[in-house]
Design goal:
Shape of chain A: globular
Strand content of chain A: 25-35%
Number of domains of chain A: 3
Number of helices of chain A: 17
Structural class of chain A: alpha/beta
Strand content of chain B: under 5%
Oligomer: heterodimer
Helix content of chain B: over 70%
Shape of chain B: globular
Distance between the termini of chain A: 40 Å
Radius of gyration of chain B: 21 Å
CATH class of the largest domain in chain A: Alpha Beta
Number of domains of chain B: 1
CATH architecture of the largest domain in chain A: 3-Layer(aba) Sandwich
Helix content of chain A: 25-40%
CATH superfamily of the largest domain in chain A: P-loop containing nucleotide triphosphate hydrolases
Number of strands of chain A: 24
Distance between the termini of chain B: 23 Å
CATH topology of the largest domain in chain A: Rossmann fold
CATH topology of chain B: ABC transporter involved in vitamin B12 uptake, BtuC
Radius of gyration of chain A: 25 Å
Number of helices of chain B: 14
Structural class of chain B: mainly alpha
CATH architecture of chain B: Orthogonal Bundle
Largest sheet of chain B: 2 strands, antiparallel
C-alpha cells in the first residue's frame, strides 16, 4: 500500500491576471483528517476544485494510491472515489432527501427500454445511508425543511453512498450551530475509523486542534508546509499563515481624522447568527478598516446600517443625532452611501449607460419645475466625474457592462460622490480589479478622506486593510472582537488573532 | 477593414431583420395590390394602430421592469363598456341607464381612466408590496375585471352612442382622425415620462437590476405601483377609443389584445428580461404587427393562415432580438 492515499504534486492554476496556485502540493495519509489552512484567497478552495475537477489545472499531477489519475470533471472525480461537501451547498430544496441523494443516478426498475424510477428502493437505500451517518430523519422529507446541518449530513451521506474514499469538506462548519458541529465531528471520526481520508478546510483553530491529524498551510497560492497537528500551537499556525512581506505600495496618507461623525451602538441583526451588539465610532476624514474572515458578517452589518437588512435593536447616530434607517433612502438622507461588495449583483445596472448608472441616485437633486429631469446639469455632473476619476470610456452613453471592473467601480464611486454623503461605506472596494485600477481607487479614497469624508472600508485582503486604514475593527462571527488604533499594533498576526476568536 | 464592414452590414441586417422583411413585404404588397398605397388605406391602418399603440405603450412600462400585464385585454373591455354606458343617446331603446343624461365626452374618458387606474393600483400593490409575480398578479386581475364587467353589463352589448363619442373616431383635425391624434399625444407624453422624469429612469433601473435599484435609493415599490396604475389607465383609454371606432362595446372587447401588445413591444425591441425599450420600440412593433395583418389580407392569405404567419414572425423576431444581447457576452 502506498504511503499516501492521495497526492497532489506541482499544481499550478492561473486565472486572468492572477496566479491562484503556484506549484502547490498536498499529501494525504490514508484514514486521516487533513486540515488545509490559509487566509482568504490563499488558494485552498481553488486547490480543492482542481482536485475535484471543477477547475482544470494548468500543470500538476494527482496520484491516488500511488497511481497517477486524470480528473477532468466532478463525475470522473466521483468515479475515483473522491467526493466534495461544498462550502455553499447546492441542493434542491423543493425535492425530497432521497431525490437529492440520488439525483442523476436514480435507481430504476422496469422492463426493456421502459425505465421507471424505483422509489421504494431509493427511499430504503436513503434510509440506510442516513443511518450510516447517524441521522434518522425521514428520507421523504423535503430538503428545504431541514436545517443547514442536516442538509450537510445529506451531502455527506451522498458521498458515503458513492463509496467515496476521499471526502473534501470545504468550510463545513461556517454556518453550523455547536450541536451540529458536534454531530459533524462524530460522523467524521466514524468515517476515519472506517479508513476514509478527509480534507478539512476551516479557519477555526480549536476545531483544527480537535479533529485534524495533519495540517497543510497555504499562503498566496503557494505551499508553505505540512506538519502533524499535535506539534503545532495556534500561534505557530497563524504565523505560518500570515508570514508575508507587505509588498503593495499604498498612496501616502495625507488625511487627518477629526471629530466623530457617526456612532453605532449595540446594533443587532434580526437574525441570531448575523451581527450582534456591534458598537463603533467613525471620525471625519478617517479611513476605518473592517477586517475579518469571510463570513464574519461585516457585509451584513453594513447592509443593516444602510437599511437593506433588518435590525432588531441598537442605534445609529449621525453627528450626535439618532437616525431611523428602514430603507436605503433613509440612509441616503442621513448622509450615508454604500458601495456594495457584489458589484454585478447589486451595484451596476449592466444594460444601462454610464450616465444612467451615475444618475440613478441623484435625479431628485436635478429637476426643473420640480419634475422634469435637468439633463444638462446631470450631463455636467457625469462628465465631471468621468474627468475627475479618469474613467476610461468613449462617452457617457457607453453601457457600463462594456467597461473593465475598475472603471465600473469608479462609476459607482461617482454615483455616490454626486450624492455628497458624509459617510461612504466601501465593501471590498478593490475586489476583482486589476492592480493599476486598485491604486487609483486607493488614491480616490485618500483624497475623499482628505476632503473630510468618513470612509468605512471592508477588506478581506490583509495588505490592503493594514495599508489603507487609519484604524481597524476586526469582526468574527457577527461580533466585534477587536479594535486596533495604534500604527505599531497593525500587524497581520493581531488582525488574525482577533478574526479567529470564535 | 473590408471584413469588419461586411460584419457590420451583416449585423445590421440580422438586428433589423424583421423590419427589413416587413418593409419588403409592404413594398411588394403595394405594387401587386391596387388599393394598398392610398391615403384612405393608410389612414385606416393608422386608425387601427392608434388604439394598439396606446395599449402597447402601457404594457411597455410593465415589460421594461421585467414584468407583463395579462389584464390589459379585459381592462380594455371594461373601459370600453364603462365609456359606453356613460355616453348612450337618450332616445336609444336599449339604453343601460335610461334616465341618465349622457356625460360630456371628456368627463367620461376621465372617469374610465380613473376607474381602470384604481384596478391597476391594486395589481401594482400585490406585485410590489406582496411580491406576487407580475404574471400571476395580472392574471388574477384579468379574471376579476372580466367578472366585474360581466356582472355590470349583464353581458349585453352596448350601442346607440351620442354623436360626440363616435366623432372621436370619425372626426378630423388637420385631415387626421382624432383617434390618431390621441395616440400621438399619448406617445409624446409617454416619451416624456420615460426620458424626462425620475419615474421613467427609475423604471429602467428596476428593470436593469432591482437589487441595485434598491441600494441606489430608488423607491422600487412606489414606482412599480405607479407603472401598473398608469398602464391600466391607458388600457381604459384604449377601450374608450375602440368603442368610439366601433360605435359599440361588449365584454368581449379587447380580448387577447394584451398578448399582441406584448408581442409588438418585444418585436420592436423592448426586452422581456427588463431594462431595455423605448417609445419608438412600441411604435415599430405595433406598425410591424398591423402592416403584417393588412398586407397578408391584401395578398389574399387565408385568415387562419395569418395566425400562423404572425406566430412565425414573433418566433423569428424575438430570437433575433435575444441574439443581440447574448452575442455581447
Amino acid at each position: 500500500m502506498a504511503e499516501y492515499k492521495l497526492e497532489l504534486k506541482g499544481v499550478c492554476k492561473s486565472f486572468p491576471g492572477v496566479k491562484a496556485l503556484d506549484n502547490v502540493q498536498l499529501s494525504l495519509r490514508p484514514g486521516t483528517v487533513h486540515a488545509l489552512m490559509g487566509e482568504n484567497g490563499a488558494g485552498k478552495s481553488t486547490l480543492m476544485k482542481c482536485l475535484f475537477g471543477i477547475y482544470k489545472m494548468d500543470a500538476g499531477e494527482i496520484y491516488l494510491d500511488g497511481k497517477k489519475i486524470e480528473v477532468g470533471n466532478p463525475d470522473e472525480a466521483m468515479k475515483h472515489g473522491i467526493a466534495m461537501v461544498h462550502q455553499e451547498l447546492q441542493p434542491i430544496p423543493a425535492r425530497s432527501v432521497g431525490e437529492n441523494l440520488y439525483l442523476g443516478r436514480f435507481p430504476t426498475k422496469g422492463f426493456g427500454p421502459i425505465k421507471m424510477i424505483d422509489h421504494k428502493k431509493m427511499y430504503a437505500d436513503t434510509e440506510k445511508w442516513l443511518k450510516e451517518v447517524k441521522m434518522d430523519f425521514d428520507p421523504k422529507a423535503l430538503l428545504g425543511t431541514l436545517s443547514i446541518g442536516q442538509m450537510q449530513s445529506v451531502e455527506i451521506a451522498k458521498a458515503v453512498s458513492q463509496e467515496a474514499k476521499v471526502i473534501i469538506f470545504d468550510e463545513p462548519t461556517s454556518s453550523l450551530s455547536d450541536n451540529e458541529v458536534e454531530a459533524l465531528f462524530r460522523i467524521m471520526n466514524d468515517l476515519r475509523g472506517k479508513g476514509v481520508t478527509m480534507v478539512y478546510i476551516s479557519h477555526k483553530m480549536d476545531e483544527i486542534k480537535r479533529i485534524a491529524d495533519d495540517i497543510t498551510v497555504m499562503r498566496d497560492g503557494t505551499y508553505i508546509g505540512t506538519w502533524p497537528a499535535a506539534e503545532m500551537t495556534t500561534d505557530q499556525i497563524i504565523a505560518k499563515m500570515v508570514g508575508r512581506e507587505l509588498t503593495n505600495v499604498y498612496p501616502p496618507r495625507t488625511n487627518t481624522p477629526g471629530e466623530v461623525v457617526m456612532e453605532v451602538e449595540g446594533l443587532s441583526s434580526i437574525h441570531e447568527k448575523s451581527f450582534q451588539n456591534v458598537s463603533f465610532q467613525l471620525r471625519k476624514g478617517e479611513i476605518l478598516g473592517f477586517g475579518g474572515l469571510v463570513g464574519a458578517q461585516r457585509t451584513e452589518l453594513m447592509e443593516g446600517i444602510f437599511g437593506i437588512r433588518g435590525v432588531a435593536s441598537g442605534e445609529v447616530r449621525m453627528r450626535g443625532n439618532a437616525v431611523r434607517i428602514k430603507h436605503p433612502i433613509d440612509a441616503m438622507n442621513a448622509g450615508i452611501g454604500l458601495i456594495t461588495e457584489d458589484r454585478r449583483g447589486n451595484g451596476i445596472f449592466g444594460c444601462l449607460s454610464i450616465k444612467e448608472n451615475v444618475g440613478v441616485s441623484i435625479y431628485n437633486k436635478f429637476l426643473k419645475a420640480g419634475m422634469i429631469l435637468d439633463h444638462k446639469r446631470i450631463n455636467g455632473v457625469v462628465d465631471d466625474s468621468i474627468q475627475k476619476l479618469s474613467i476610461k470610456t468613449p462617452s457617457m452613453k457607453e453601457h457600463i457592462s462594456n467597461l473593465s471592473g475598475g472603471n465600473q467601480q469608479k462609476v459607482i464611486v461617482s454615483r455616490w460622490l454626486a450624492n455628497d454623503p458624509d459617510v461612504l461605506i466601501m465593501d471590498e472596494p478593490t475586489r476583482g480589479i486589476d492592480v493599476g485600477a486598485k491604486h487609483e481607487i486607493y488614491e480616490i479614497m485618500v483624497e475623499l478622506a482628505k476632503q473630510g469624508k468618513a470612509i468605512i472600508m471592508i477588506s478581506s485582503e490583509m495588505a490592503e486593510l493594514l495599508g489603507m486604514s487609519d484604524r481597524i475593527y476586526v469582526m468574527c462571527n457577527g461580533r466585534l472582537t477587536g479594535e486596533i488604533d495604534k500604527a505599531e499594533d497593525m500587524t497581520q498576526a493581531n488582525v488574525m488573532n482577533y478574526a479567529t476568536q470564535f | 477593414m473590408d471584413n469588419s464592414k461586411q460584419k457590420k452590414i451583416k449585423d445590421f441586417l440580422i438586428n433589423n431583420g424583421v423590419i427589413i422583411v416587413m418593409f419588403i413585404l409592404v413594398i411588394y404588397t403595394g405594387f401587386t395590390s391596387k388599393n394598398f398605397f392610398t391615403a384612405n388605406n393608410l389612414m385606416n391602418i393608422l386608425m387601427n394602430m392608434s388604439s394598439r399603440l396606446v395599449i402597447a405603450l402601457g404594457i411597455a412600462g410593465c415589460v421594461i421592469t421585467a414584468g407583463c400585464d395579462l389584464s390589459a385585454g379585459r381592462m380594455i373591455g371594461f373601459g370600453g363598456c364603462i365609456a359606453g354606458v356613460l355616453l348612450q343617446r337618450m332616445d336609444y331603446s336599449g339604453k343601460f341607464f335610461p334616465d341618465m343624461e349622457p356625460l360630456n365626452v371628456f368627463l367620461a374618458v376621465l372617469i374610465v381612466m380613473v376607474i381602470c387606474a384604481c384596478f391597476g393600483t391594486v395589481t401594482g400593490f400585490f406585485i410590489s408590496y406582496l411580491s406576487v409575480p407580475p404574471f400571476i398578479a395580472t392574471l388574477a386581475m384579468m379574471e376579476i375585471v372580466y367578472g366585474i364587467n360581466m356582472l355590470f353589463t349583464n353581458a349585453t352589448p352596448l350601442g346607440g352612442y351620442v354623436k360626440d363619442y363616435t366623432d372621436v373616431a370619425s372626426g378630423k383635425f388637420l385631415g387626421i382622425n382624432y383617434l390618431i391624434w390621441i395616440a400621438i399625444i399619448v406617445a409624446v407624453i409617454t416619451w416624456f415620462i420615460f426620458n424626462m422624469t425620475r419615474h421613467g429612469k427609475y423604471m429602467y433601473a428596476i428593470g436593469g437590476n432591482p437589487q441595485a435599484a434598491e441600494v441606489a435609493g430608488v423607491p422600487v415599490k412606489k414606482t412599480l405601483i405607479l407603472i401598473y396604475m398608469k398602464a391600466a389607465a391607458m388600457y381604459g383609454l384604449a377601450g374608450f377609443m375602440l368603442g368610439a371606432k366601433a360605435g359599440g362595446a361588449s365584454v368581449a372587447l379587447g380580448f387577447g389584445y394584451e398578448m399582441e401588445a406584448i408581442a409588438a413591444c418585444t418585436i420592436g425591441g423592448v426586452s422581456v428580461t427588463g431594462g431595455r425599450g423605448r417609445v419608438y420600440s412600441a411604435i415599430i412593433g405595433v406598425a410591424v404587427f398591423e402592416l403584417l395583418k393588412v398586407a397578408l389580407q391584401y395578398l389574399g392569405m387565408d385568415a387562419n393562415m395569418q395566425y400562423i404567419a404572425i406566430g412565425i414572425v414573433i418566433f423569428v423576431a424575438i430570437s433575433l432580438d435575444i441574439r443581440k444581447y447574448i452575442a455581447k457576452k
